[in-house]
Amino acid sequence: MIDSMELLRSNLSRVRIPEPTNRIYKHECCITFETPRSEGGLFIDMNTFLAFGKDCVGWNYEKAGNPVYLHIKQTRKLVPEDRPSKKPTLLALGVDGGFDNNEPEYEESHDIVILPDYVTLPFPSVELPEKVRLAVDAILRAEGAERKEQLAAWTADKKQISAYAMNLQQVDHGVTVPPSGWKCTKCEKRDNLWLNLTDGMILCGRKNWDGSGGNDHAIEHYKESGYPLAVKLGTITADLEAADVFSYPEDESVMDPLLAQHLAFFGIDFSSLQKTEMTTAERELDQNTNFDWNRIQESGLEVEPLFGPEYTGLVNLGNSCYLAATMQVMFATRSFYTRFYMNQSLKMAFQMAPADPTVDLNMQLTKLAHGMLSGKYSVPKIENDDSASIATSINRQEGIPPRMFKAVIAASHPEFSSMRQQDASEFFLHFLDQVEHANSGKPELDPSRSFKFGIEERILCSSGKVTYNKRLDYILSLNIPLHEATNTEELEAFNNLKAEKISEGIDLSSDQIVRPRVPLEACLANFSAPEEIHDFYSTALKAKTTAIKTAGLTSFPDYLVLHMRKFVMEAGWVPKKLDVYIDVPDIIDISQMRSKGLQPGEELLPEDFPGVEVESNKPVANEEIVTQLVSMGFNHLHCEKAAINTSNAGVEEAMNWLLSHMDDPDIDFPITQDTQGAAALLNVDQSKVDILISFGFQEEIAQKALKASGGDIEKATDWIFNNPDASVSPDMYATTSSTTPASIHDGLPDGGGRYRLFGFVSHIGTSTQCGHYVAHILKNGRWVIFNDAKVGASINPPKDMGYLYFFERVSS
């Protein structure tokens, strides 16, 4: 039998020493939610640096053929009964020096394991080949890719290059900075130290409100000297981009492309330094992800915790409640449950995945589905009983962290990639778009189709002729007609009381507030109600007129999602939430909302434009705008197009449009009504249109505003408020052509119009930019609340406070 050490040496070619830029996974399995604390520990592939749980590492060996793994196992320490409480030195939770949040401590052990026979060699050991020892040391020292991605998201906006970096003047005072043993020049602080990159002074950071942190010596030195840039000692490694460089005049963390040169000026060899301090982003992340989000939902009710299959909570990654609430409802549907859980095993998804399964949406959706639905991770949490020095279970679960899924689904979206709060309706649409794209060409495997339906708009011209336009959607956005409130008498009494209290300088208590109650039926009826369109260009009359628009659904999906437009625009373009209750019945019938299409006796508006009319309506560019742009060196035709496509809104808007359309294939085509009308509308980013629709604006208005503002949402909102008479774009001519080919509508799910409410997502907070999302789902005849990692039997589900309502069709 071959000796274990010889076996390792024979496989050294499959061992790599990681570079600083390599992504190293060592905190969570790529296929499951196993961690080093799981029973089998975690196995790190020493060639790809991917991590696998005990049940999955064999699959990776079969697929990739890599035999050598670093096995990491963490075992809980028993807490001594007389352990003293630690005095916090940092304003943080769950970090060294932070507040003691009673998190258990763990011992970590390491081994080298060689597959397929799981031959094990202990680490550390001087007998191991040097290449293996160097590789393991580098893996253990490195920041895990899981945490790196989380930190990158928390930083949110990519750090900008400092305006002071490229021309930084350094002063030679003969300072040589040692590789360790640093201390503040003005006090005894030995942590949170910053090296000023101009004169080499080492000084402590800012003082926190509670007296912890530094003594403000670094920032005081900047105020005295004006030397702008400093780097945090302990964050400098071979990966220089990860170093924490702060610009005092710019008041933010920045990039210094010449950092290596600036460090060398003081004798610092960055390649030999190791990370010993948290960056500013890391410290902020630690403080925020440990915040107890559950307090936001504390209502004084004793909610019975639930465990087992389909009752797994999702850990809040920091403002990720919008994702957690949405995904809980998604996997409560038959289509997603079947596609990613019942019909697809973890091994099957891994075998189909690319070399890196962490970037594959199908793999990460399957991982999330099995994690949430299997019940494997929905068990009571284990905690230490300090008095008995034993581990005991408590009546709540830890939940699973959807980090890898979030990284994949948000990769193509800058907002969802950040750690900022997001709109759950926007995430829902983005998620289904990504799922549809991943299943392109395989409609039978696409679960997003169960949400898709057609909308048909009928426009009746004053000539008596009609046109029909069709589009597809996943969500039915409904305006809330406050005038349809059913409690008008109570509202009138409340408004009188409010006015009285205000005159007396007295605030109303929360139990005195009366909110409008609007029936969901009124919101649905409002969607289909006739709506006037002013300045509609009729191809029959060859003139602008007033038309009547009605809307209906061409198909009824398996799952109907209703989005309540509760947000309106306040001063400063900040979305504000309508304080309103929606009375939602358990069963709704939308049969009357089915569109009928072209009816016998109806005559369609003519398609063709007589040449003279088109020419007379040819758009004209504002000559002042064109002249200013041409004086900047732009092509005259391009400038005319920019002015026309922004409705002559101004030079800045035209320039923004011009810069973003320089590479358009038709940029040099002659200006025609056709290309500047329909084509211009098609160039509008639909996701931005959806955002404006969520604010309560009509789709046509949103399109025109975005076109006029070069795609800038804030400027588009400004444009709408400055053009109160704006309606359907004059160049949006009435034709019989539909915006979506009829063939695309073929094959959509369809059936009866009766639906049963099975879930809703509620929002707590004043706007989409803040607050918290919670999901309620009907499971096995009872309502269940999913509040991030907290899962329990709902006592009083707030059905009238929903933001998104999810209905499933009732079988006839």
UniProtKB/TrEMBL annotation:
Annotated UBP-type domain residues: 160-270
Q: Where does Zn(2+) bind?
A: 184, 187, 204, 217
Any Pfam family: UBA
One GO term (biological process): cell communication
Q: Which GO terms describe its molecular function?
A: cysteine-type deubiquitinase activity; zinc ion binding
Active-site residues per Swiss-Prot or TrEMBL entry: 321, 772
The record's section on CDD domains has: Peptidase_C19B, UBA1_atUBP14
Q: What InterPro entries does the entry give?
A: Papain-like_cys_pep_sf (IPR038765), Peptidase_C19_UCH (IPR001394), Ub_carboxyl-term_hydrolase (IPR050185), UBA (IPR015940), UBA-like_sf (IPR009060), Ubiquitinyl_hydrolase (IPR016652), UBP13_Znf-UBP_var (IPR041432), USP (IPR028889)
Provide the reaction this enzyme catalyses. Answer: Thiol-dependent hydrolysis of ester, thioester, amide, peptide and isopeptide bonds formed by the C-terminal Gly of ubiquitin (a 76-residue protein attached to proteins as an intracellular targeting signal)
USP domain: from which residue to which, for each copy?
312-810
Q: Where is the UBA domain?
A: 620-661, 683-723
The enzyme's main class, written as a single word, is: hydrolase
Q: Which UniProt keywords apply?
A: Hydrolase, Metal-binding, Protease, Repeat, Thiol protease, Ubl conjugation pathway, Zinc, Zinc-finger
Instruction: List its EC numbers.
Output: 3.4.19.12
Q: Which PANTHER family match?
A: UBIQUITIN CARBOXYL-TERMINAL HYDROLASE, UBIQUITIN CARBOXYL-TERMINAL HYDROLASE 14
Function as written in the Swiss-Prot or TrEMBL entry: Recognizes and hydrolyzes the peptide bond at the C-terminal Gly of ubiquitin. Involved in the processing of poly-ubiquitin precursors as well as that of ubiquitinated proteins.
Family according to the record: Belongs to the peptidase C19 family.
Instruction: Please identify the protein, giving its name as recorded.
Output: Ubiquitin carboxyl-terminal hydrolase
Query: Which organism encodes this protein?
Result: Cephalotus follicularis
